[in-house]
Amino acid sequence: MRHFGIANAAEKLNIPCGICMNMAAAFFQLGVLPEKSASLDRILRKINPCSNNKKLAVGIYYPYQDSDTDIEMLREIREATKIKNSIIMGDFNYPHIDWIHVTSGREAEIKFLNGLNDCFLEQLVQEPTRGEAILDLVLSGVQDQVQDITVTGPLGNSDHNITTFNIPVVGRTPQQSSTLAFNFKKGNYTKMRRLVKQKLKGTVTRAKSLKAAWKLFKDTIIEAELKCIPQIKKHSKRPKRESPWLNHHVKEAVRDKKVSFKKWKSNPSEINRKEHKHCQIKCKNVIRKAKKDFEEQLAKNSKRNNKMFFKYIRSRKPAKKPVGPLDDRAIKGAIKDDKAIAEK
């Protein structure tokens, strides 16, 4: 994903990690990564999404279930909630908690609920995320900080449903581009040729030097452009690029999968569950076939259309990871400027 960065606990700790965070590079600041732990994967990132320098802490946790991990996880959640605006999410794997009445009969789950109450955190997901259980949680300590939580179908072969939500941001508005660009498709080139011919007739030969002749020619062309070619506002937003193998069969299969999932959620019967499973398998097979057919056709035409071939090969390569920010103990801070990072 262009202009997005991956935050992973393994980037500073030399350990394997099963979670990562993908966010816009413009929001990145120094991450707060706790010390190495063999029983808990976690990432905590401080970001600044608002123009008023209001910090927001976003954390992802994946604990391995044992008593020591529960104690360590609750301790780290307390540390994370010291930042006023904090959102914590992850697969906490507490299937027996009744989130409607916030009760449980298991000792570990009761300790977890008591820990959330001590930190004044509210659990916001109210729909099952795996089977009939709510395992993937979103915790927030500020009212209305997280909005529009929805649970949709699983991604690929995962048995967990996708949970999406919005974080309203105050003060950061999308910048409207004020740059003007020539719309050459609607230019009046007959008029432009006539103006250039009238202006340059007999004047170029009287120029005292080559530099003066070039300046006269350039000014004439620019003046004729302004008079004969209309200008439009240049849009800074890039158009959404679709995958080259995405055809109408894939779109139809994805649409059927989403419809069957909504039908199953609204009426959780065995017939609807089997129908959704059938649509899920069909969608996966259609995507595989579309990719295979596209790549075979691309390989056949590689000699005639080598640009398309190498463009697709480059798109399949992993994105290069940017360098920085760097920690500088001398100034007790972070170096974020590209030039300063290169010099360091």
TrEMBL record:
GO terms for molecular function: catalytic activity. Signal peptide: none annotated. It holds the Pfam family Exo_endo_phos_2. Residues 60-162 form the Endonuclease/exonuclease/phosphatase domain. GO terms for biological process: cell adhesion involved in heart morphogenesis; larval heart development. GO terms for cellular component: extracellular matrix. InterPro entries: Endo/exonu/phosph_ase_sf, Endo/exonuclease/phosphatase. This is Endonuclease/exonuclease/phosphatase domain-containing protein.
